[in-house]
Amino acid sequence: EVHGVLSEFIRLNPRAWAPLVSTWAVDLLGQLSSKHAGRRVAPHSSSLNELLQLWMSCAATRSLMEAYSQCLAAMLAWCPDACVDALLDTSVKHSPHFDWVVAHIGSAFPGTIISRVLACGLKDFCSHGGKDQGLLVEKGSRVPKIGSVVGILGHLAAHHSDSIRKELLRMFQESLTPSTPLSPTSSSTSWEASPQLRRAAVPFLLQLAAMSPNLFGAVSSELVEMLRPPVLLQLQALLQGLPREELDNMLGLAVHLISQSPTGGARVLKFLADTATPASVIISGPTPSPHEGVREGCDRLLQMLLLHLHKLVFNRSDGAEVSPVSSASSQPQRVTPFLEELRSHVGQLCAETLRLERKRHLWLHQLLCLLSVYGGPSVATETLCQLLTQARNPEELALAWQLHTTLSSCMAGLIPAAVAHCVAQIHTHTLAPRQLRQLLLNLAAAIQSQDEERKGAAGAHFSMAVQIGSAISGHLHDFGPLLLHGDSAVSHAAVRLLSCSPLPRTSSPAHLLLLSRAAVTHFFLALRRRGDAKKVGRDVGQTGEAVSCSVLLLSRFAAYSPLTLKAILQQLVEGALHKGNADLFGGQIADMSGAPVASPSVSPDLGASLLDINCRFGTTVNFSGSVWSVFHAGVIGKGLKVRTAANLPDPSAVIQVG
After folding, report:
1. For a disulfide at 598, which of 190, 437, 507, 644, Cβ 3.0-4.6 Å?
2. Number of C-alpha atoms within 13 angstroms, CB side, residue 593?
3. pLDDT at 379
4. Interatomic CA distance for residues 218 and 211, integer angstroms
5. Can you tell me the distance from the alpha carbon of 140 to that of 571, in angstroms, rounded to the nearest whole number?
6. Cβ(51)–Cβ(61) below 8 Å
7. DSSP class of residue 640?
8. More confidently predicted of 539 and 338
9. Does residue 459 surpass a pLDDT of 80?
């Protein structure tokens, strides 16, 4: 009866009764929820579905809930903030026992509750912040209702995440546009009409995102796409009027959010790097050059992010220094979601770093160092291998040496692990021929730098070159088959690497024989390629270098041990006496009588073959009076066989080969 009377009062005169009844009903629901929360029958506060079913089975609480819903529906047209504000106040007093009421009301009025909860939370955030503008974003404990806002939106996110995302993005957009009401239906107390609330909207959203990772994840992907140059200029104009301390607090909060973002880290990093890159650097893609003030702001934000990541990486074991040498640490390591996601983008980060754009490659190289320390030996090895594979000149290759210099202080055995990783990629055919060639050339350049560095003071570069040479010497049998690679550029790079790499102190006879045979075979292939290049008039610089490297490799193998000397001499003699290689050393292919065989282009086709005639001898009827018209001197009736002049090779080339 009481419920029916109250319902009739609200229906007949909502402006008079709805505010009173809504405040009384929601306060009474909060008191009942807290008073009976400790009873055995009541389920845990985290089980919202069970709590909702339990309380809605009670006639009294069900009547109170229906009365409040009727008041809220009546007040939506003229004063929704008062009703939602009472809901927030009660949620602050009786949370978490009151969450089931919020969940039920939010499910019944999702659009209204989401927008009004955010508006009420923004007003309370601004009023508790201070006398000026209330932007103390770092002290969320001083804003009592923001926790309730986070809780309510968290309950609604399960079924209304899309509405929450749209409302958060709308609030961000409206805070940047001129101070005009969003629509004619907006009330006079709407936050869009207040300049003070509009200035506080961005800090409020940052604080919400910091308190609820789910809310941040719902908007982070679209927020980056929204930050175009016009929006960035509006955001800069909004933040220019803030005091320095409050602006630093906002930047620190943004850095914290980026570092704790589990998704979209690569996109955020690319956006910051593109926007912070100086205007003199050409940015790939249609992105226009940002405003100087925006660029400086992103530059500062990126520097703060790198510093924050540095602290997280080197202090994640309760203050102990990180030791990536051991992959399995006894102490639990703190997880940094931003770096966790970037572990799968090492190749792209290395490619961007090797572009050597001013400032940009320094930021990315520092990030690669932090990512290598954070990820341990596996990520560090992958990063170094990517740099060795993708570097195309000495300037780019120097970034790999800088990475090793930085990591060598906290990580041992990085070079041998990187070489072993490269060998594994060769065995699994992971690298394309062009990448394989570049890797071999870069390794050879690293070893050859020993001679240059040995002349001066021994430094980190010289130490790394020695380590690379030592690591490759243990894998010569893995690089040996590349001498016979189908791509001549890869085989050339392989012989260049093997000709300058140190030989191991000990090696198995099987490996030595395989390397010797591959080296001799490559020697004859290199001679053939140089000869073919001369015939067609191409530049013989590369093929000549391949022959020189092959000769150097054979001489080093021959001096290594008596076994390799004997094997190389034997295979060289066999190869030189082979008919197919006779022309490489000034010889000519002769027939059975010792006469040189003319090439098909020199000797005319007489239409008869002595071989065919001899094959038919004895198999055909020899009629009397018939004669054999074909014999070794020619064909009867067609003259003697044409004697071709011997095509003698260039003596200087033969002497050079010898």
Report:
1. 644
2. 6
3. 94
4. 13
5. 81
6. no
7. E
8. 338
9. no
Question: What's the rounded mean pLDDT across residues 561-578?
Answer: 89
Q: With H, G, I as helix, E, B as strand and everything else as coil, classify residue 502.
A: coil
The length of the chain in residues reads 658
Read off the pTM: 0.75
What type of residue sits at position 480?
A: G
**Does residue 386 register a pLDDT over 80?**
yes
Spatial CA neighbour of 375 closest among 351, 348, 407 = 407
DSSP-derived 3-state class of residue 639:
strand
Inter-axis angle of helices 99-108 and 14-35, nearest 10: 140
How many Å from the N-terminal Cα to the C-terminal Cα in the chain? 118
- List the one residue out of 299, 118, 301, 338 whose CA is nearest residue 220: 338
The SS3 call for residue 592 is: coil
Residue environment code for 611-646, b if the CB has 16+ CB neighbours within 10 A, otherwise e: eeeeeeeeeeeeeeeeeeebeeebbeeeeebeeeee
CB 148 within 8 A of CB 92: yes
Of 577, 553, 554, which is closest to residue 565 (Cα–Cα)?
Answer: 554
Read off the pLDDT band of 370 (50, 70, 90).
Answer: very high
Q: Measure the CA dihedral 295/301/307/313, to 10°.
A: -120
Give bridge partners of residue 635 from the DSSP assignment.
630, 639
**Cα distance between residue 178 and residue 485, in whole Å:** 67
Rounded CA-CA distance 538/543 in Å is 10
Sheet holding 639-640, edge to edge: 630-631, 634-635, 639-640
Residue type, 144: P
Structure tokens at 567: 């094997």
Among 121, 103, 118, 106, which residue's Cα sits nearest to residue 33? 103
The burial of 452, by beta-carbon neighbours within 10 Å (0-12 exposed, 13-18 middle, 19 or more buried), is given as exposed
Query: By C-alpha distance, which of 465, 395, 386 is closest to 425?
Result: 386
Q: Say how far apart CA 357 and CA 364 lie, in whole Å.
A: 10
- Backbone φ and ψ for 137, nearest 5 degrees, come out as -75, -15
Q: Of the ranges 129-143, 395-409, 499-513, 539-553, which one carries the lowest mean pLDDT score? A: 129-143
What's the mean per-residue pLDDT of the chain? Answer: 78
Is the bond leading into 96 cis (omega within 30 degrees of zero)? yes
SS3 431: coil
CA 146 to chain centre: 36
Read off the pLDDT of each residue in 326-344 and give the average, rounded to a whole number: 72
**Residue bearing tokens 């490619």:** 351
| 144 contacts: CB under 8 Å, gap ≥ 6 | 92, 124, 128
Residue 256 CA to residue 209 CA, distance in Å, equals: 10
In angstroms, the CA 609 to CA 630 distance is 7
Q: How does DSSP assign 627-638, residue by residue?
A: ---EETTEETTT
Query: Which pLDDT score, from 0 to 100, does residue 329 have?
Result: 41
What angle do helix axes 433-455 and 377-390 make, rounded to 10 degrees? 90
Both structure tokens of 519: 């080296």
* Orientation of helix 541-558 relative to helix 562-577, angle to 10°: 140
